[in-house]
Structure formats: C-alpha cells, structure tokens
Amino acid sequence: MRQHVNPLSKHFDEIEVIPPLNEIFRNPILPLHLDVGSASGDFLFELALENNNWNYLGVEIREKLVKNAKSRILDREIENLYFAFGSANNLFNDCRFKTILSSLKSISFYFPDPWFKKKHHKRRVIQPDLINTLSIFMQKGALIFLKTDVKELFEYMNFTVSSNLNFQKLDKKFMKYSESFNPNEIKTSREKYVIKSQMNTFEEIYIKI
Ligand SMILES: C[S@@+](CC[C@H](N)C(=O)[O-])C[C@H]1O[C@@H](n2cnc3c(N)ncnc32)[C@H](O)[C@@H]1O
C-alpha cells in the first residue's frame, strides 16, 4: 500500500460528512478524543476497547485504511469509536466539523508524515491555519498531544503550536495520564517501532487557555 499521499491533491477536496455525535456513539456525552492520522486504527481500537468511558474518533487520509477500520468496528460492535476519511486540514475547515472540534477534550498528532523537503512543508498536517482553527473552537482546558521521532519536525510542530497564544505548554508533572484519553499509555504502531529500534521520541502537550 502507498505510504504517502499528497494531502493537497484535488482528490481530497471532497470530505466525508460526519453524522452528529449522537448517531455515531452510543453515549455521546462521554469525553471525546480525536486522533489525526489514525492509519489502520489499531491504536484507537486498543484505546476504545480498554476505556469505555471515552469516545474516540480517528481521521485518516488513506481511504482504504478507513474502510477497513469502519468494517472492523461493525464486526466487533464497538460503540465508542468512529473513523472518518479525509485530510484533517480540509475536514477542520468544514463548518459541519466545528461541533466536533468544540466537543473535544483532546487531540493527538502522533508521528505525522514528516515531509522532509522544504518545498513539501506545506503538506505537513500541522499548519498555522489548522492550529488557529483549533484555538478558536477547542474548549479551554482541551489538550493537544504531539509526538514524533523526527527532531526537525518536532521543532516545527512546537514552534507552530506555541506561536498561537491560545495554547500553552503543559508541564508533564501536571499531566494526569490516568484521567486522560490514554490512561494506560498505549503506544501507536509507529511508536512501538521507534521504541524497538531504540530511536528517540520527542513529545509535548499543549493546553488551550
Ligand atoms: C507516519 S503515519 C503515523 C500513523 C500513526 N499515527 C502512528 O503513530 O502509528 C502518518 C499517518 O497520517 C496520515 N495523514 C497524513 N496526512 C494527513 C492528513 N492531512 N489528514 C489525515 N491523515 C493524514 C497518513 O496517511 C498516515 O496514515
């Protein structure tokens, strides 16, 4: 399967319309976490099965992965998990997505595609506009989780989020993982690989103030 798709391609102009939260989750009032670039969804499946006191939403640009994940949800009758196909950058700009953004307790950008070449930086999912949209719609106290194994990308993501004055770095000693979307600190597929390969992981958490 192709690993990288160009999120700026016309193909992604059309976006999936996500039904209202009360149609996609059994209990829509549970805290909601959004994982951007959810790939096959394994990470969110583990989370949803372990934590039935949270709802989880994955957004992924590779359509086939989303189709497979959706059918796995139906097979396993999981009622606190949903996947949407599309580029996060386009979805977040859609007025119908704003209700979801304002319902979020947290959002993760875990190991996003690095797009190393300078001329391709505009393909990176974290862009000032996207962070600005989050800063407008996310509630005070909502969290952004960033992780990557690429130092240069980490510096770029950190700079982009911290340049928005509505987000502040959260000192990890104040982070109560047990109350977060990931109380057991489950790792994503990429993170498992990074740990196994003894590579570095860079991470930061931001809070909307
Ligand atoms: C390197 S993979 C990491 C997957 C997973 N988060 C992990 O940590 O294992 C990055 C994922 O982000 C997806 N992706 C890239 N750009 C995206 C975008 N603009 N919107 C949604 N997903 C995107 C890719 O298709 C890929 O599945």
Structural class: alpha/beta
- pLDDT averaged residue by residue: 95
Unreliable segments of 5+ consecutive residues = none
Beta-strand segment tally = 7
Instruction: Estimate nothing, just give the exact number of structural domains.
Output: 1
Bound molecules: S-adenosylmethionine
What is the name of the CATH topology?
A: Rossmann fold
User: Hey, roughly how much beta strand do the residues contain?
Assistant: 15-25%
Strand order of the largest sheet: 3-2-1-4-5-7-6
Helix content percent band: 25-40%
Largest sheet geometry: 7 strands, mixed
The total of helices stands at: 8
For this entry, what is the oligomeric state of its chains? single chain
State the name of the first-level CATH class: Alpha Beta
Distance between the amino and carboxyl termini: 40 Å
Question: How large, in whole angstroms, is the Cα Rg?
Answer: 16 Å
Question: How would you describe the overall organization of this protein?
Answer:
The protein contains eight helices and seven strands. It is of the alpha/beta class and 209 residues long. It has a seven-stranded mixed beta sheet with strand order 3-2-1-4-5-7-6, sandwiched between helices. Strand 4 (104-110), helix 6 and strand 5 (143-148) form a beta-alpha-beta unit. The radius of gyration is 16 Å and the shape is globular. The relative contact order is 0.16. S-adenosylmethionine (SAM) is lined by residues 7, 36-37, 39, 59-62, 87-89, 110-113, 125, 188-191.
